[in-house]
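Sequence in, structure out. Go.
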Amino acid sequence: MTPTPQEMAMDVVTLTRCRTLGEADLLVAQLEAAGIPAFIPDQFLMQNIGFNLNTYGYVRLQVSPKDYEAAKEVLSGPGPNA
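Output:
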């Protein structure tokens, strides 16, 4: 996802959407290990109702606009087992 200029002016931007909360948690851990704070705004919603709904593609992963490019690079690089 590429944020619009208006989104880049906000406090956080959506870096990607994940199929599940577990997938989003793994990406957050990877980003935070690289020193990039990340946030899952839908985390509590998914914990409460996610198991009862088809939530694929709904869990957003957000970062600060200043960290957006670095976060994209971290997630597009080789995985931790490379």
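Check: The chain has one domain: 5-76. The chain is about 40% helix and 15% strand.
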